[in-house]
Design goal:
mainly beta; 9 strands
Length: 193
């Protein structure tokens, strides 16, 4: 988690929906018992005249995620590290390999940090480097959230000694590409309620 929005004092109750979620001019616009897919709860059938939005049965006040803390509250996560352990099995050849290959021991792991050129077998990854290697910007990702895929490629020629079977790491964003702008993405970031 790199950023968060706090909605203090929420209690289950009835309150107006956010502007733009389900606008109304009269109670007829708010069908009681129904839901709007992008809304915060079940409509009560009442048009709240203070906001001209339908009243909902929900956690109130409803979360307003239109204003996101900037800069992100946990920018230090850029320097957090991730230890990846993985393995691959080639059952036909009775070969199992771990990414902790020859030469990767506790002493090496205590000092290394993954670098595609200088330390391509180090299993310790800095989050900021993972985001950068995926082509994204950490500050933007930290602001809105996101998901990065890590591909561990085990392309091995088992006709040669198994010690040559080593992993290669690739990184990519799971919700768009780095060139996308806010207006071209259907869903920016990653979040949960």
């Amino acid at each position: 988690m790199t950023n968060y929005i706090i909605t203090e004092g929420q209690e289950m109750g009835k309150c107006p929906e956010l502007p733009g979620k389900h606008n109304c001019t009269s109670n007829n616009d708010c069908i009681g018992g129904s839901y709007k897919r992008t809304g915060h709860g079940q409509m009560t059938g009442v048009c709240a005249t203070t906001t001209n939005t339908c009243e909902v049965l929900a956690w109130c006040p409803v979360e307003d995620d239109r204003t996101i803390p900037n800069p992100p509250l946990l920018m230090s996560a850029e320097n957090y590290t991730l230890f990846i352990k993985n393995s691959v099995t080639f059952p036909l050849f009775e070969v199992t390999r771990s990414n902790l290959v020859e030469g990767i021991d506790a002493n090496y792991i205590s000092k290394c940090l993954y670098d595609p050129k200088k330390a391509p077998l180090c299993p310790i990854f800095r989050l900021g480097d993972i985001v950068e290697l995926s082509g994204f910007n950490f500050e933007k990702l930290a602001l809105e959230g996101g998901a990065i895929g890590i591909v561990v490629d085990w392309t091995c020629n088992l006709d040669v000694h198994v010690k040559h079977c080593k992993p290669e790491y690739n990184f990519h964003g799971l919700y768009g590409n780095p060139a996308d702008t806010d207006s071209t993405s259907a869903s920016i970031g990653y979040n949960f309620r």
